[in-house]
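>> received
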Amino acid sequence: MIYFDNSATSFPKPKSVIDAVNKSLVSYSANSGRGGYELSKNTAAEVFAARQTAADFFNADGAENVVFTHNCTASLNYIIKGLAEENDHFIVSCLEHNAVIRPLERLKREGKISYSIAEVGESDEKTVESFKSKIRKNTKAIITTHASNVTGEVLPVKMLAELAHSYGLLFAVDAAQTSGVLKLDVKEQGIDFLAVAAHKGLYAPMGIGLMIINSNYPLKTTVEGGTGSVSESPVQPDFLPDRFESGTLSVPLISGAKAGVEFVNRLCVDNIRAHEHELISYLYGELREMKNLLLYTDPESKSKSFVPILPLNVRGLHSEETAELLAADGICVRAGFHCAFSAHKFCKTDSVGAVRISPSVFTRKKDVNLLLNSLFKIAKSQ
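>> returned
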């Protein structure tokens, strides 16, 4: 099996991550912060160490600014629904995932909020200008993907943060495709709320996400319950991270996330991106002249920046047909609309979707060559 679906979830997982999960099941299987015995104390120490590791990685103020969630979608729901108040207005990009669009659309249909979609321009400056043109008197926040899960295009988050803050707005970022691939510093980049999918570029198990809070804005809670703290009060705690962590934490997954961040730190984000970018550039160069192949982004562009994702199609085939043919050759890719239909409308692939190729640190050039051989065979048959 040759795996090119790392934008959905990374595979394989590093041995260190697997070992961390297995160790956690044996050594940290008590309820964190809810017992005075040694096993519970050791579990609490492991959870704190994971928070601190993530806080250091994203340059959060402290471990308490790291909230563990089920996934990036949960983090985005906490952020959006925690911010939204009656008559608020939000601005998003035309490349958003449904993890952003659907919560906003539900609130809109309930008559609570409104939102506008800013076009991504030919340059960072034009993108920022598009966002600026959507600002209203009642705008609460700009919420944007850091990089499209369809095209890989990277948005100018630092410039957008500066725009938001210059108008007194909050700024939230969906980093599902960039955590572990691009450097993320919530302070330096001015990000108030960061949503992270740890199971992708951070090589953690599925089922664990992060919400990094770099703002004093009092997000409303969407889930309340037992936190192991101030149990005598019927009111949810107002301090981090307890405010957003009700119920039993998934400590094995948290241990896996900690090991994933440590794995990325050891290899260095810049080295990982360079490796993956080299593979995507090689793939693009070989495919560019292939008959019946349609390409939608240029990873070598001088005017735009991309994470290592390449969307493509074989002329005359629906993307899912191409994916099935690749699967028959043992090659795993993602096809269809990637839960981001607005991005496909932007790319004009809304009728057939796209085949998405996304390598990882474990992908080798020989894997790319096998993909090329399979694509050549499919394209030649059309």
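>> The mean pLDDT is 97.
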